[in-house]
Design a protein that fits this description.
Elements lengths: L5 H23 L2 H18 L9 H61 L2 H11 L5 H8 L3 H31 L1
């Protein structure tokens, strides 16, 4: 069969298409995909007709070509399925991790606020100005009209009390995020 002989090609197509399609369905379990693969085999046959040397029957060649197309399709579907599972799993992990982190961050903020509320007023004020407003000790001392050494003492006391109050929760967070 040569590319220049459309009637011979048409005859081969009409003779074998139906059986090749049925064979492809048994391999890929998808009617539309089976039809597309058989059409692809015939397209390649048409494109290569002048260059192609077929030893044996054309039917054997066509069945082997459909078989190979089907195997390639099945391999591709498996790769696609694995990739989809990976993406779904990654998204689920990221979502769960993100949700867990938000919950823990919220819980940490709540615990910190509770611990801050338990501090003596002056310690709490100094701590908030230092950590939340990011003021230097000298600036805090000037604003509160106290000495820098007093600011240092209040910060030391505040940090000691916060550490004691939050030690169990912080240990839990560190273990959770590093395991």
């Amino acid at each position: 069969m040569t590319k220049q002989d459309p009637s011979a090609f048409e005859q081969v197509f009409k003779t074998h298409f139906k059986d090749l399609h049925a064979y492809a369905i048994t391999l890929v379990q998808d009617d539309a995909m089976a039809e597309e693969m058989v059409q692809q085999v015939f397209f390649k046959l048409w494109e290569r007709a002048g260059k192609l040397t077929i030893s044996g029957s054309i039917a054997a060649y066509l069945y082997r070509a459909v078989h190979n197309e089907s195997l390639n399709y099945i391999k591709h579907q498996k790769v696609k399925a694995v990739h989809q599972l990976y993406v779904a799993h990654s998204m689920k992990d990221n979502h769960e991790s993100s949700a867990s982190k938000k919950l823990l961050t919220s819980e940490l903020e709540k615990k910190i606020q509770e611990a801050l509320n338990e501090l003596p007023e002056q310690c709490r004020t100094v701590f908030q100005m230092s950590r939340f407003e990011e003021l230097k000790y000298a600036e805090i001392a000037e604003r509160l009209d106290i000495s820098v050494k007093t600011v240092e003492n209040h910060m030391g006391k505040a940090l000691k009390m916060l550490r004691a109050r939050l030690v169990d929760f912080l240990t839990f967070l560190i273990l959770l995020f590093h395991l």
